[in-house]
User: Fold this.
Amino acid sequence: MNTQNTDSHISVEQRRYATWLSWGARSGLMILAVTFLAYVFGWLPARIPLEQMPSVWNLSSHEYLQQTGAPTGWHWLSLVNQGDFAGLVGIAWLSGCSLLCLLAVMPIYARRKDWVFVALCIIALLVQLLAASGILTAGH
Amino acid sequence: MLNEVVSRLQNTGTLLRANALLLLLVLSLFTAGAYAAESLPDGSSMPWWGWALALFITCFFLGIVAVPSGVGGGVLFVPIVGGFFPFHLDFVRGAGLLVALASALAAGPSLLRGGLANLRLALPLAVLASASAIAGAMIGLAIPANLVQIALGITILGIVVLMAMAKKSEFPEVAAPDRLSSALSMNGIFHDAARNQKINWQVHRTPLGLALFVGIGFLAGLFGMGAGWANVPVLNLLMGAPLKVSAGTSSFILTLVDSSAAWIYLNKGAVLAIIAVPSVIGMMLGAFIGARLLHVLKASVVRRLVISLLLFAGLRALLKGLGIWP
Assistant:
């Protein structure tokens, strides 16, 4: 199976993946930095005041959730206008940007009838979506 | 002759200055860590911004030493921050995953474009490791923190032994690829700039490599650290990928493995922006400086420093978990 591009030893799908990953990582880091500045400089109000964080960050995540009433799963999205949860937008974006990269390379594999790698991309997508879904629960 | 001697003396001077600077940075790191450790019983005595700043500075230094030593920032972050800062280990592991993820995402595009990371080699391994990372993250959040600390301490001490003993092979000999790697076309060409030539490579022992990546993914999710320390030996020594391809592909694999585990921590409320963001930014800035210092710093000195740091942090995690050094 020839996976090499005619004018380079880097395959077409690999270059497309790199392009999408580059945009995903850059935009994610930018969102992360901007929302964090809004959080620490008080441009956005915080649900849990920053001054109180030292009294809760030594708790386990389970105790922290109980004490602060912070949401689990995707419920933080409804609180995104608050500084401490706005910061999670960048984190979620960074965690999820690989999904777009996988979707971007699937058509290339499909055109080449490389069904094994189409299947691998679909499985990778499903694994990421399962992790992101919040269906899987665990805790102390 | 005289010019050569002067040039050598100048190089030695530069090297000494750079390594002295590094030693100073590491001493500062230990001072910050010791201060944090002393403050543990009354963590609220220092304001939130003091901790955020200390975390940023610590991660900046960790980022500097992570690049020349060849280990990911995550493997340094979790035991050191978990051992010396007042944050619960759940939040440290959540932040550790994001530190490793952000570093891998930042490096990923250039590694892919340069052929040092290979999508066909990475994808099958990453799928299995991502799935097991989810299981590791779920178990890590379900068991008591002191058990995770003990297991972390033992694992870090194991990594120290691995780093001290493991051999590397720049271009391992792979006589013939196995059937699975042939079927998946897990091979490629990369341009070795040092030799200015294109290197054809292929891999073998793929089924065993896949099985080991299940375990590696599990550990990554459990402890919230990148798994480059394990990925590279498996890709290089077991499967026979060239060292540079192994390191690049390992970093790329982390973009998928750490993101699946990060979702579990995020969904369980184990990610706090006030811990995660200064860590990510500090580590990335430090890694940027570390990459610039790469040609000045002596890799063996940095490596010994990192092994010492990990040995100390591993013992700290173990003793903390056992309640001997709370």
